[in-house]
Amino acid sequence: MERTIPKARTESTRPRLEPMLDLEWSQAIELPRTVASATRPSDLRRAWVHRAPEDLVVALYRASSGMHGEIPAPWWLRAVVEGKLESRELGFRIEDRISGLLGRRPGWEFVPWAADGESGYWEFMPSERGASGHSIPTTVLNTSRHDGWIDVLPAHSSTTPPPIAVGGFAGLRSRLGEFEAVR
Questions:
Q1: Are 140 and 154 in contact (CB under 8 A)?
Q2: Among candidates 171, 37, 39, which has minimal Cα distance to 99?
Q3: Which tens digit of pLDDT belongs to each residue from 145-176?
Q4: Mind spelling out the 3-state secondary structure of the chain?
Q5: Cα–Cα distance between 121 and 141 in angstroms, integer?
Q6: Which residues 6+ apart lie within 8 Å of 163 measured at CB?
Q7: What are the residues whose beta carbons fall under 8 Å from the beta carbon of 92, sequence distance 6 or more?
Q8: Which of 112, 136, 113, 95 is nearest to 39 (CA)?
Q9: CA pair distance 144, 81, nearest whole angstrom
Q10: N or C end: fewer C-beta atoms under 10 angstroms in the chain?
Q11: What is the pLDDT of residues 24-61, one digit of tens each?
């Protein structure tokens, strides 16, 4: 029996490997496990999307979302890509201003374990299980759905109410008494 030695692969028969955008994007927004103890949004800025050059972040986001529609991403990145927000740095400043305001007020707690890619959110704990009996506290989160960048979800117990669009940092500061009144 004669053994036939297989021919060496030529360039045209080699397997062609291409990066998997889903995996690449997943790794781009992945945070280290240590962020569970974060007390403000800046503690979460450890992923590639927070540190890599902004133009590369935007390009990968566009390539990844172009194949599958909306993908998990920070609110500020969606706003930058849509041309509504100048830069990632401005998004960070908005988050930091909210953190500076709510972090000093009693009853507000930062929740770092938001949806994949998101920047965390703030909860007003006295609005949960207080006199009003709500099981979900008043929540402040950033959004790209309007140019005030802040939504408030009122305390509730069943169906999530529509978010209240807040007119930026000044709007949040001026309405805090209203939001904190629910207990």
A1: no
A2: 39
A3: 999 999 999 999 988 999 999 999 999 999 99
A4: CCCCCCCCCCHHHCCCCCCCHHHHHHHHHCCCHHHHHCCCHHHHCCCHHHHCCHHHHHHHHHHHHHHHCCCCCCHHHHHHHCCCCCCHHHHHHHHHHHHHHHCCCCCEEEECCCCCCCCCEEEEHHHCCCCCCCCECEEEEECCCCCCCEEEECCECCCCCCCEEECHHHHHHHHHHHHHCCC
A5: 5
A6: 143, 145, 151, 152, 153
A7: 41, 42, 45, 76
A8: 112
A9: 10
A10: N
A11: 888 999 987 777 789 999 999 999 999 999 999 999 99
Q: What is the pTM of this model?
A: 0.85
The residues facing 5 across adjacent strands are none
> Do residues 97 and 169 touch, judged by C-beta distance below 8 A?
yes
Q: Which of 155, 149, 154, 138 is nearest to 98 (CA)?
A: 149
| Residues across the chain | 183
- Crossing angle of helices 54-68/21-29, nearest 10°? 130
Contact criterion met (CB below 8 Å) for 120 and 31: no
